[in-house]
């Protein structure tokens, strides 16, 4: 029997390396901007924290790791993928327990004693959890090829159009789509108007989702609609127009993969990150 490795761990890629609190002793906050990734600033305090947290001393290597995490997080948010506060808290509690602390309050006090920002830790954990969840979703198609064991689940193939509240013509575009959008022009309008450029390139196609893949407000609406429906969902970031292209039941694999399968997914992961970087606007400051 070939050795199995936890499916969840593939996507971590050492993202959540466990660090003793004393290893971060002396950490201080700085407010100098070091990077800007698609308009999102990265402070020197982020770099310093990441060096200790990821155990990477090389400046460029840690910057690249942060850039990849931010790009995945940004793309996840555009496609409606998020994690709940409870998921974040459970992840931090697991890290606390792995470092000898049985509750979050004690862990927080120890962090504060060593000059470590709990909010910074929470920010890193949230971003990495969202990024990893998105990767599991994005690479699922390759994982499910040839699957013979797993759980039979309801899946929906969907297309999306995301209109960001940051755009100047937000109200105008939303009204236009509400009035004119239908299944025949959905792909055309997605390519023309969607602020999620990756799905826009494919006529808005996000792919197959199962319950729990998307942010709660989107997940609830997607699984309360049927094949052929087009509907609107308003969120804090903007408005989603969603088209249920098809629905079916599919075998979702167990969360275990072989080493050979991991290598295949690692290549797909690297290729996807390369595409994200090519489309990104990244500024570095001395």
UniProtKB/TrEMBL annotation:
<dbReference type="InterPro" id="IPR015391">
    <property type="entry name" value="SurA_N"/>
</dbReference>
<dbReference type="InterPro" id="IPR027304">
    <property type="entry name" value="Trigger_fact/SurA_dom_sf"/>
</dbReference>
<dbReference type="InterPro" id="IPR046357">
    <property type="entry name" value="PPIase_dom_sf"/>
</dbReference>
<keyword id="KW-0143">Chaperone</keyword>
<keyword id="KW-0574">Periplasm</keyword>
<dbReference type="Pfam" id="PF09312">
    <property type="entry name" value="SurA_N"/>
</dbReference>
<dbReference type="Pfam" id="PF00639">
    <property type="entry name" value="Rotamase"/>
</dbReference>
<dbReference type="InterPro" id="IPR000297">
    <property type="entry name" value="PPIase_PpiC"/>
</dbReference>
<keyword id="KW-0732">Signal</keyword>
<keyword id="KW-0413">Isomerase</keyword>
<feature type="domain" description="PpiC">
    <location>
        <begin position="153"/>
        <end position="246"/>
    </location>
</feature>
<feature type="signal peptide">
    <location>
        <begin position="1"/>
        <end position="21"/>
    </location>
</feature>
<dbReference type="InterPro" id="IPR050280">
    <property type="entry name" value="OMP_Chaperone_SurA"/>
</dbReference>
<protein>
    <submittedName>
        <fullName>Peptidylprolyl isomerase</fullName>
    </submittedName>
</protein>
<keyword id="KW-0697">Rotamase</keyword>
<dbReference type="GO" id="GO:0003755">
    <property type="term" value="F:peptidyl-prolyl cis-trans isomerase activity"/>
</dbReference>
